[in-house]
Amino acid sequence: xxxxxxxxxxxxxxxxxxxxxxxxxxxxxxxxxxxxxxxxxxxxxxxxxxxxxxxxxxxxxxxxxxxxxxxxxxxxxxxxxxxxxxxxxxxxxxxxxxxxxxxxxxxxxxxxxxxxxxxxxxxxxxxxxxxxxxxxxxxxxxxxxxxxxxxxxxxxxxxxxxxxxxxxxxxxxxxxxxxxxxxxxxxxxxxxxxxxxxxxxxxxxxxxxxxxxxxxxxxxxxxxx
Length: 225
Prior knowledge:
The protein is mostly helical. The protein has helices spanning 2-12, 14-22, 29-33, 45-52, 57-75, 80-98, 104-128, 132-141, 145-150, 153-170, 179-195, 203-216, 218-221. It is elongated. 27% of the residues are buried.
């Protein structure tokens, strides 16, 4: 119900925002309507269908773009690679619209599929028996074809849990600014990757990615989150 009201409010401010949207200026249609942004996590089939069927496709596109952009940005501090991948998908879809490769209606279809992909991604940690933080480490090491081909999914999952625990055990409160601690963690990560048979040619990149991911969740790792 809230979502349908949101869309009606957005529709009411079409005249206010339409001129700016036609010139491709980024406008926050939610602020213009004086309403609270809906949460992407509660986007229902009904809501997505309502967006798809809006007469003013540029407004519908702006609604979805804003929702997805905000949602993806909120994930940056939790999952480095997932958020990067999602943002690239969003930007690519919008670029195709601006370059007139796709119509507004076609891009809306892509963004609806992207929102559904996000909902599926949110279920994966639970399906794998991982916490969100463990899953972030999993995406960090499963982000290349070599690793996925050489190692079974269950082994990558086990490795992700071990990496998370080892980094958590050895991360001091100020570890992100202490080079000695960072160097120690780097050695631990490299050794663990090697022990689990991670592809040798990808170990350096995986180590860097794991440490970058760890820095993003530094407070949670040290119990200060």
